[in-house]
Amino acid sequence: MGGILSGCGVLVLNMFKWLKRQLDKIGSPTLDWVQVEVTSHCNGACIYCPHTLLRSRWTSKQMPIELFRKLIPFLKYTDMVYLQGWGEPLLNNNIFEMIRICKDQGKCVGFTTNGMLLTEDTIRTLTDLELDIIGISLAGATATTHNQIRKGTDFNKLVSNLELLYKIKAERKTNVPAVHLAYLMLRSNFHELKEILPLAKRVGAKQIVASNMTLILDPKLSAEAIFNDTKHMDYYNITLKEIKDKATSENIIFDYHGPGLDDASLRCRENVLHACVINVEGKVVPCVLTDPVLCENREPDDRNPPCYIFKDQSFPIRGISFGNIRNESLTHIWNKKEYSRFRELFNPKITRSSEQILSEMPQCCVKCYKRLGA
Ligand code: SF4
Ligand code: SF4
pTM higher than 0.85 for the full model? Predict the structure, then answer.
């Protein structure tokens, strides 16, 4: 009798699981990419990074491979997986396995690195795995500037690692991983940005993205954000345009953000409508600025929450999570009312007055430089 009952129980359970899979298929989103924070450990100490500035409260974590595997059923709803969050992806011991899982599903895979762990073995493995994109973080085009800002990393070592990657790709007659240079524009390093083109040519990079410091944790750094340097906006605009034109003539894509702010903008520059971030603990969040790892409290009664600076005022960092892939499917999380309502705020097809949109937007989005186009 017990056997028959448990047999029925198993049947019901299997039917339930089957039904859940079918429902997941029906309601699954089509995403441009899924960003996965595979680690929050880092070997760098960049002067502007929460990893450095919140170090007394930062808890470094690794995404376990078992948690990463929970994403497999949902990989078919996206073309791209970017293995990146607040940390150095090569510090996750399972990074190669994670890449392999995504590649086996036919996905385009990439991550951004500070480049310090790109040993010859690692480069060869990444090339064997046919990693599609490797982003390289820079904050200068000379060792003096880069090393002062991206402390704990070394420009010369980074460039020689990239030259080795270039050589190995040439030996193997492959274009992957494609190298993308990610340059953080600051007032103190902007004058070196034009040198990024010769560097890109030297290491075979076909794409450069010049971005802004959008999360400012130290008031002393506010003046470093070029969007705050309103007196020199013409200089920034003209220089960026010149670099873009030169890059285009050399067949290199040069994208940049800003340089000024659009205070009337209601559109988040992150692709919140068609992408999401899974943080190191499996939480589904709209962007890295709302990643709960940024505001984790070591003490339950933490009275001193981490804050960021927006337009000279200080605001507590707030995480937003719509669910966790540990215990819910990504489809279910994506379709939750609160997540749909959040996305609607950024949907240009839904027309509402700007006052209404701003009144419904979470404060972290209202007071966000990325919303203003930075
Ligand atoms: S390498 Fe990246 S994660 Fe590490 S400290 Fe620098 S900016 Fe932060
Ligand atoms: S507005 Fe800012 S905080 Fe809100 S989703 Fe966009 S990037 Fe994230």
Answer: yes
